[in-house]
Specification:
The protein is mostly helical. It folds into 3 domains: 80 residues, no CATH class; 40 residues, no CATH class; 47 residues. Helices cover 60% and strands 2% of the residues. The protein is built from 10 helices and 2 strands. Strands 1-2 form a two-stranded antiparallel ribbon. α1 runs parallel beside α4. The longest helix is centred in the C-terminal third of the chain and has 36 residues. The radius of gyration is 32 Å and the shape is elongated. This is RNA transcription, translation and transport factor protein. It holds the Pfam family RLL. InterPro entries: RTRAF. Belongs to the RTRAF family.
Length: 217
């Protein structure tokens, strides 16, 4: 909203940045003026903002960063001694870092999520969802995944997933799994081709009798 944006800029200047003297903020405060964009553009130059007036999101981020730096500079002694709330915050940080530690596998939402993911990735379903997970986490599968492979980097945004989960992170994970699945299929196809060539080498070596005009033994 244009009015809210202009009020936001005025609030930042009045309360945090304070680049202009109070008496010099009149043009910026006159948010209903047709000349306000010119006043805002001049203000951006005066505070050395590197972005253009059209780049609003970048400008907002930059001005907020400036405001935070100035706020900290005015209250450095207050903020430099700030510490987390002890063990509680440390525990929360540990939980956030290891979200699978407290995972409840019997939670209905977890079960529904596993089944939904199986459908999206076209993984064969099983009555017991834990068995389905184990089939994908066998020792052989883990050992194979642990083997280092050299290859070219892949730009995920250039590959169409074919469906949308509604979550960007899950979409990216699904793209990776699908590409890995395609790689496995290609390896299988290569082995099939090698087997076909080997069989042909055995059976496709007939003796030729040109006098009879036929091929045979």
């Amino acid at each position: 909203d244009e009015t809210e944006f202009r009020n936001f800029i005025v609030w930042l200047e009045d309360q945090k940045i304070r680049h202009y003297k109070i008496e010099d903020r009149g043009n910026l405060r006159n948010i209903h003026s047709e000349d306000w964009p010119k006043s805002f553009e001049k203000y951006m130059k005066d505070v050395n903002c590197p972005f253009k007036i059209q780049e609003r999101q970048e400008t907002v981020d930059w001005l907020l960063g400036l405001a935070v730096r100035l706020e900290y500079g005015d209250n450095a002694d207050k903020y430099k001694d700030s510490t987390p709330d002890g063990a509680k915050n440390a525990d929360n940080a540990a939980k956030n870092a290891e979200p699978l530690i407290n995972l409840d596998v019997n939670n209905p939402d977890f079960k529904a999520g596993v089944m939904a993911l199986a459908n999206l990735l076209q993984i064969q379903r099983h009555d017991d969802y834990l068995v389905m997970l184990k089939e994908r986490l066998t020792q052989d599968a883990i050992a194979k995944a642990s083997q280092s492979k050299e290859g070219l980097p892949v730009a995920l945004e250039k590959h169409i997933l074919g469906f949308d989960t509604g979550d960007a992170v899950i979409n990216e994970a699904a793209q990776i799994l699908r590409l890995l699945h395609i790689e496995e299929l290609r390896e299988l196809q290569t082995k099939i081709n090698e087997a076909i060539v080997a069989v042909q080498a055995i059976i496709a070596d007939p003796k030729t009798d040109h006098r009879l005009g036929k091929v045979g033994r």
